[in-house]
Amino acid sequence: MTAAHGFDLLGPMPTGTTVLEASAGTGKTYAIVGLAARYIAEGIAEISDLLLVTFSRAATQELRDRTRSRFASIARDLADPNIARASRDPLVAFLAAVDDAEVDRRRRRLRRALSDFDAGTIVTTHSFCQRMLDGLGIAGEREPESAFVESVSDLLEQVVDDLYLQMFSGADEAPAFSRRDAQQLASAAVGDQQSILYPDTEDLDDDNREPALRVRFAREARREIERRKRLLGVRDYNDLLGLLHSVLSDPVHGEAACARVRDRFRVVLIDEFQDTDPMQWDILRRAFHGFTTLILVGDPKQAIYAFRGAEVLSYLDAVQTADHLYELTANWRSDSGLLDALHHLYGGAALGHDDIVVHRVEARNPLSRMVGHPPLRLRYLPRTGAGPLRQGFPAVDRLRSRVAADVAADIVELLSGSAVIERPDGPRVIEPRDIAVLTRTTKQVALIRDALDAVGVPSVVSSSTSVFGTESARHWLWLLQAIEQPHRTDRVRLAALTPLLGWTAAQLDSGAEDALSQVSSRLREYSVLFDEAGFAAVFERVSAQSGLDARLLAVEAGERTMTDLRHIAQLLNRAAVSESYGITALTRWLTDRIKEPAAGGSTDRSRRLDSDSAAVQIMTTHGSKGLEFPVVYLPYAWDTLYFSKPSTLLLHENGKRIRDVGGPSGSGYAARKILNDQEEAGEELRLLYVGLTRAECRIVLWWAPGRNTATSSLHRMLFGRIPAIALPEPSYKVLDDATTANRLQSWVGSAAGLISVEPVGPGEPSTAHWIRPEQPHLDVAAARFDRTLDLLWRRTSYSALTAHAHDAAPGRPEVGVTSEAEHPEKTDEPTETSVGGEYPGSEYTDEQLDGIASPMNGMPAGAAFGTLVHEALEHVDTSAPDLLAELERRCAAAVASRMAEVDPVALAQALLPVMQTPLGFGTLADVAPSDHLAELDFELPLAGGDDPVADTVTLKSVARLLRYHLDPADVLASYADLLDDLEATPLRGFLTGSIDSVLRVSGPRYVVVDYKTNRIARGDLTTGNFTREKMAQEMIRSHYPLQAILYAVALHRYLRWRQSDYDPQLHLGGIRYLFVRGMVGPQTPAGCGVFDWNPPAALVVELSDLLAGKVAR
Asked: Where are the domains of the chain?
């Protein structure tokens, strides 16, 4: 690999494998999106050739939005080449620096990419794995019947309970470790499947009995969780990663699978690559390295997720493997003065590894946006005033509380001082929303929140914290315990004093036994109500009787409490309903959640924001990654987490990821503990870097003399740096107060104008409240509904339009149409009727017609069977080497999902001739998966949609168009007369539906395909029952021509956006209604089974305009 070079977005395009190393604020996403725009505009790749991968759903959505927006803005700016060449946007000017014809081509490529944007692949890592497994077909088999879940923590709880009982319930001796330790062991082993468990022993002699049992328990937990996941048909997203890796690394078929994956993409960009792990990197390396343009974008200085399995060593390995290394060196986030101050603090430092060094970046904001304020302030506490000393240090809890109070006082001073900040919309006074307080742990979040509440500063806690870790969760637990046991006075008192019931201690005391009796009576009522109507009814009753909302909103920070209480109520109700919990089981469930707040799916447990308008943001540093704020407070960078003898260790030895689960008495624990501490210390340095680099204008830090300060990241940066040595000392003694003050002042040195070192006095911080500035008075009034409702506006469908005709039609044998709703079941299929029924006026007979017998004789009829056939044909992979086996697999999945009483093998054998019947342009089996679009959902505006026009459109208007455009000799020409008989309801609103299939055939031309399972006649059927004449009769009787022409209009509107140089005459390929019971394979008589209709393109276009309200005929 060559040496690193500065990256130029306008330079030569990267080729081969390239690592693009960023620093905080250097525009990593801007560079990724810019590269994607260049690859498209310059014709190097189509949008379908691009793969963009990042590591969270939120980041993926942001990347999609920014990519689409960037493509659109560049395409818009390139409309006038002369103006584009003078653009202030460097990328626009660069793309316009060619002749006008090439500028136009680049613009058209970007517009085509926008129209085909959904063909691009912008996904999370796990979504990428899932798509690749789907694309690999049988080779990537991922058990399609499995249900995917975000977390298996509940299942792991069961596994731990069972294994713990199996291991210790019958033993004479006490358990070697506690149930809590067992949970930690299992969580570490199962959550980190890529690690090797140490010590490598299960020898149960007296000297190492506990370590051996711990290792055995961890290994058993791994095996048992996998066994139970398979048994229950449950998979988490990490299983996808392992499955794809096993497919790509298979010694026999792996290379072929890699080739299929890489053939889909010409350019691959991976964001946040520093958060990858060895398996993810190996997947990318096998699939793309050496074959495809692979761009790995990341910042190793921000690798802070080792506890989630991320491994910065994978990034460093990729750097060694890559063909090119570029660096992003311009910082667009922070002011120049702040960058200089931060460089004085950590410039040149190695953050846990010799190859992860902080280099200086170029400031693109040369002026300060907060004039008159030093960009970096360091406030330090003395030992004096912090209470009694133990071993020379104050109690850490007192220090944390003092720091929290000082943070609150400092924020009040900042907000009250009329400090001005320059923002994109102009200068204004600093507001709470401009401030973020970043903590190391969620417990510290609560300290800061309470301190800000005490001085009247509004704050909001990030959603990264768990709602089960709040006081509201404990209040719900007390109420549930009291409902469970309303005879226990202690529990009744606790429940009464919660915000849920709203009693005060004075009320309970003054009411004596009568008050307790009243509360107990209500609790008994809630218990009965729970049994009769469920938890949701209990919550509504509690809320109404106690006046919950009004009571909480009347107190300080009540909105936050109400949000948490309602959030937990929703989770309790979900658990009660989904698991059929009674009150006792539900109470136990909540108890377990409070003990382990991080358990469960992150979407469920993440605390909801009550309100973030004009509020200080409080979050952990981990949660702040990717964000930026004008002013950042870091109050606890001195307070490191340290466990003298943790039960599990994570480290690397000889390139292997090691998880030591043997405990402190295990063999080799001490040596591995040293390596574990070194790696954790490096991650702490990187975490400090992340926190410091969130700021745009100003940073405020705190230093305090605690017992663990010596190994903290901030202390090591301030005192443990040795000239010419990049890596700070792992630990540095905490000096006495006077020496500390002198050292800090001398450390500032030449940066005195940028850094302010401020002592915090021994006295209590100011408790002055922040006085919110006066807001302009606004007159408010209740909203009045004065609109006129358009009662004819509706969301309709083909089946709704024809429902009156079907409902009024006389009964017919095994035939009928009711609704076009495509999901979850096809209901434009015939309904099944009883054998031998009478059908007045029926044209059906039991006549046996000559022809080839239908392969579906003996198969059931009705909508359920039609749905089954649709599901199988929708998902079949025509590229599979064995089409019958593929059909059997799809039929088996469809039958299982629908719990249908149909033999999947027999169904597959009946559908094979359907796949092989000529359609006039080949067969269904001949159509490649890339030329088959299944279930094209549409929603077409009628008469203007959301903005209705004055013209009235009815089905009679459609009938007039059919008469005008259809040749009298057209087999469906008479349908216009039948259409005239339908109710003439004005068509206003939206038309919804779903086309079974759209096939792309040579030309290209696009063909609408709809599958029909209609029997048409009683008894066994032959191809003679499905001649063109009989199919036309069935088409007209069932109003299928209306469905067909509406589908053609939907396809026409779809192609206007998707097909370049779209011409209806050239690209509309007609309609095929496949009566599958009459399709018997290659020997199907001409005209049988396949009803083809080619309505004039002019009819489709004019009908589209008619429905849109543009013309009236």
From this structure: 10-140+240-328, 151-232, 364-464+612-759, 467-605, 860-916, 929-1112
Which residues lie below 8 Å from residue 956, measured CB to CB, with a gap of 6+?
A: 979, 980, 984
* Under-70 pLDDT residues of the chain: 1-2, 137-145, 202-207, 463-465, 512, 598-613, 643, 804-848, 1111-1113
CA dihedral 1010, 1016, 1020, 1022 (to 10 degrees): -70
Contacts 24+ apart (CB under 8 A), 1027-1031: 1027/1087, 1027/1088, 1028/971, 1028/1087, 1028/1088, 1028/1091, 1029/971, 1031/1073, 1031/1075, 1031/1078, 1031/1089, 1031/1091
Which of 779, 790, 1010, 1105 is catalytic? The answer is: 1010
Query: Per CATH, the architecture of 10-140+240-328 is what?
Result: 3-Layer(aba) Sandwich (3.40)
**Rounded-to-integer distance, Cα 99 and Cα 897, Å:** 58
1010 annotated active-site:
yes
Domains 10-140+240-328 and 364-464+612-759 share a fold: yes
Q: Rounded to 5 degrees, what are φ and ψ at 948?
A: -60, 145
Residue 966 burial by Cβ neighbours in a 10 Å radius (0-12, 13-18, 19+): buried
Closest CA to 699 of 400, 340, 195: 340
Domain 467-605, architecture per CATH: Orthogonal Bundle (1.10)
Task: With H, G, I as helix, E, B as strand and everything else as coil, classify residue 388.
Answer: coil
Phi, psi of 550 (to 5 degrees): -60, -40
Per-residue b or e along 513-543, where b marks 16 or more CB atoms closer than 10 Å to that residue's CB: eebbeebbebbeebbebbeeeebbebbebbb
Distance CA 596, CA 155 (A): 14
Among candidates 936, 1053, 941, which has minimal Cα distance to 991? 941
- Nearest 10 degrees: Cα torsion 1020, 1024, 1027, 1030: -60
**Residues β-bridged to residue 1007:** 999
Q: Give CA–CA dist 858/864, Å, rounded.
A: 15
Question: Of the candidates 982, 953, 1066, which has an alpha carbon nearest to the alpha carbon of residue 803?
Answer: 982
Give ∠ CA 412-414-417 in degrees, rounded to 5: 105
pLDDT at 821: 38
Class of domain 929-1112: alpha beta
pLDDT at 517: 87
| Residue pair 545/522 in contact by the 8 Å Cβ criterion | yes
Residue 858 region, left (φ>0) first, then alpha (ψ -120 to 50), else beta?
left
Distance in angstroms (rounded) separating the CA atoms of residues 753 and 1079? 86
**Residue with the two structure tokens 């008159």:** 372
CA distance 81 to 504: 73
The gap between the terminal CA atoms of the chain, to the nearest Å, is 70
Looking at domain 364-464+612-759, its CATH architecture is 3-Layer(aba) Sandwich (3.40)
Minimal CA–CA distance to 177: which of 203, 148, 210, 144? 210
Measured in whole angstroms, the distance separating CA 145 from the mean position of its chain's CA atoms is 21
Q: What is the pLDDT of residues 374-423, one digit of tens each?
A: 999 999 999 887 788 888 899 999 999 999 999 999 999 999 988 899 88
Q: CA 312, 315, 321: angle at the middle one, nearest 5? A: 145
| Side chain identity at residue 662, one-letter code | G
Between helix 254-262 and helix 237-248 the angle, nearest 10°, is 110
At a CB cut-off of 8 Å and minimum separation 6, what does 541 contact?
A: 525, 526, 529
692: number of CA atoms within 13 Å, CB side?
30
Q: Where in 346-419 does DSSP place strands (E)?
A: 362-363, 376-380, 389-390, 393-394
